[in-house]
Write a structure and sequence with these properties.
The strands form 6 sheets. A 4-stranded antiparallel sheet has the order 3-2-1-24, with no helix packed on it. Strands 4-5-6-7 form a 4-stranded antiparallel sheet, with no helix packed on it. The chain has 2 domains: 4-91, no CATH class; 145-424, YVTN repeat-like/Quinoprotein amine dehydrogenase (Methylamine Dehydrogenase, Chain H). A hairpin with a 5-residue loop joins strand 12 and strand 13 (277-281). The longest helix has 9 residues, at 74-82. It contains 9 helices and 24 strands. The chain is an alpha+beta fold. The chain has helices at 10-16, 18-25, 32-38, 53-59, 61-68, 74-82, 95-101, 103-110, 116-124; strands at residues 140-146, 154-159, 165-168, 181-183, 190-194, 199-204, 210-216, 222-227, 233-237, 242-246, 253-258, 266-271, 277-281, 293-297, 304-306, 317-322, 328-334, 342-348, 355-359, 374-379, 385-389, 394-398, 405-411, 417-424.
């Protein structure tokens, strides 16, 4: 049966808790595991992505009562009791589904040969066993671009099942100050990453190997990007304050699709489900002023249809994407760049621009906002919404159907996540 050590990830624990890593380096504690056994489990820290303390206590109030009485810690309860009672250790692993879809495992569990989570950790992941309604093993990874400003200045790859750090994604190419990362639409299994040195680089989506420079353009300083319905590549030129269009196959410059006259600062943009073009008119990062709306353009001509399509006084747009419901999802930090900014993901009706919902991750145990200075958004292969939180060095998840907050999926303090995308898992 599993022991605490079987569910402990030393590297992740030290990455998520840099003060503990420093204590290890200074010889105050022997290791991250030593700290967790002596202190961390009593402080409510997670040993790995396999066990989510908050999830476990929220879904098992009787256990929470015992923990409140200092009778046991959450991880101790799971090891001693929970794994044998088939309690779910985190929001992504569904014990009932795992047993239903894997009858051989159910038989082994019935014979007390092992526990459900024990099989999953030791065998199920490698065998791509179905463990929830949405996942079959680790079928994808998450790549987050981390900008140079207080970040790693690289694209960072994380395990799509666990959120565990894998490492830097691209190899070669001289990627600098990466911003958006976009999956190519020609079936070539490649991604384009906009860099801060006026170029767009192409990488293999699975291995992360650099392939070639897709395009170079003076003063591009690329931000957001999308492929349009015409199969061309649209890039937000931050230095020019406009949207530039390139041939989607050759990378050749075509035109300036959206000029800078009506835009304070171009943030995220998307071709909506109705075919129109929606641009987040954001605050100028140098002054913090301006912006605060989403502009609607004709998707074919680039002509302005509505300069204030979204009229939301509490919006300072950053990323803009299409939702699975066809509406527009916008990450917002309002007022932009202020200590008292409110972070949220806001949902707008694609037909009217009306505010439909505000997704909020809430506060952590120390009453600190879980989502802080959000940037990149993306709906994953699991149907959930992922949002980078630059203020906390993390990526959080919301239920793709209800908008409810699920969890902090990735915790990596140095992460200054500007955009994210999903790539095939590398075997």
């Amino acid at each position: 049966m599993l022991e605490i050590s079987d569910l402990f990830d030393e590297n992740l624990y030290l990455n998520v808790n840099p003060e503990i890593a420093e204590a290890v380096n200074n010889g105050i504690v022997q290791s991250g595991f030593d700290h967790f056994i002596r202190f961390g489990q009593f402080e409510g820290r997670d040993p790995s992505i396999f066990f989510d303390t908050n999830f476990y206590l929220t879904n098992n109030p009787d256990v929470a009562a015992l923990v409140q009485q200092n009778s046991i810690t959450p991880i101790q309860h799971f090891i001693q009791v929970g794994q044998f009672e088939n309690l779910d250790p985190n929001s992504q692993f569904n014990t009932d589904i795992y047993l239903q879809e894997n009858p051989d495992v159910a038989d082994a569990v019935q014979q007390n040969l092992l526990t459900t989570i024990e099989h999953f950790v030791n065998f199920g992941i490698a065998e791509n066993r179905l463990f929830s309604q949405n996942f079959i093993g680790t079928i994808f990874d998450v790549v987050v671009t981390s900008a140079a400003n207080n970040g790693n200045d690289a694209a960072i790859r994380f395990d799509g099942l666990t959120g565990r750090l894998i490492g830097e994604f691209p190899n070669g190419g001289g990627l600098t100050d990466p911003r958006d990362i976009v999956q190519e639409i020609d079936g070539s299994n490649t991604v384009l990453i906009n860099g801060g040195n006026d170029n767009v680089l192409r990488f293999d989506a699975t291995t992360g190997n650099f392939i070639e420079t897709f395009t170079e353009f003076p003063e591009l300083n690329g931000g957001g990007a999308v492929f349009g319905p015409d199969n061309n590549y649209y890039v937000g030129a931050r230095s020019l304050g406009s949207i530039v269009r390139f041939n989607g196959q050759t990378g050749d410059f075509i035109d300036e699709f959206i000029p800078s006259e009506l835009v304070d600062f171009p943030r995220g943009f998307v071709f909506g489900s109705d075919g129109n073009f929606y641009l987040g008119n954001g605050a100028d990062p140098a002054t913090g002023g301006g912006g605060g709306t989403v502009i609607q353009y004709d998707g074919l001509t680039g002509q302005v249809l509505n300069p204030n399509f979204v009229n939301d006084p509490e919006l300072s747009p950053l990323d803009v994407i299409n939702g699975l419901d066809g509406n527009i999802y916008v990450s917002s930090e309002f007022p932009f760049g202020q200590d008292d900014s409110v972070a949220s993901v806001r949902v707008y009706d694609v037909e009217t621009g009306a505010l439909l919902d505000v997704l909020d991750a809430g506060l952590d145990a120390e009453e600190v906002p879980i989502l802080d200075a959000p940037r990149g958004l993306g709906f994953g292969p699991d149907g959930n919404l992922y949002a980078s939180s630059t203020g906390t060095g993390s990526v959080v998840r919301f239920d793709g159907a209800t908008g409810d907050f699920i969890d902090v999926f990735i915790e990596f303090p140095q992460l200054n996540g500007q955009a994210l995308n999903f790539v095939p898992a590398e075997n």
